[in-house]
Specification:
A: mainly alpha, B: 3 helices, about 20% helix
Chain lengths: ~90, ~130
Amino acid sequence: MYLCGQGFFVLPCIGYSRRFDRKTQFFTLAITIMKTVSIVATVLLLGFLLGSYTKKGATTPITYTGKLTPAMKVERGKYLVNAIGCDDCHSQKS
Amino acid sequence: MTERGPEIDPNRRLSGHPAEQPLAPIADKSVLKDYALFSMGLTSTTGPWGTSFAANLTPDDTGLGNWTEAQFIKAIREGKSKGMDGARPLLPPMPWVVYKNLSHEDLSSIFAYLQTIAPVKNAVPNPVPPSAL
């Protein structure tokens, strides 16, 4: 670096500078490539995960709409009758 | 009545106070100032409102057999006997003031279940007013 400041070593200095520029370009290129690879990998990973999730959702759709079928209503009613204690007063005892 | 208390008769489940079971007269009515009295099977209760009898909830004609779901829901929501306007109020200890907060779907489900249990013929007596105790 010191010699590069002297007039006699212009060419070497230029050469050094060129080497320095090449190094900078190399590192810049390397960083750019690494960034690109990281972004592509992340996108691919997210795509894979999203694709897997979508496939699972497609094979097991959620069909419950909040409406009980007649059989479900009877089961629900049985549960409630037992839970709230209708038998306590309304059932005959021995 | 057993040593463990009253046990449910599975053949007469949810059929209300037995029609053939008369209640002994209350010898000292002064106790009603401080107590509510339950019969042995807990199907009838005597208090300031007189004597009330638990209703037959089975789908027999003497129970809920002729009821509609709308009647049932109205009975619970508004405390009206048979779910009819102008009918007498449901009497204690029926906690309809609590059950009226159940959702429509829950009340509908209870009615749906009660329509599936075994019907039991049992015409529950009418309530006895306090003056007739």
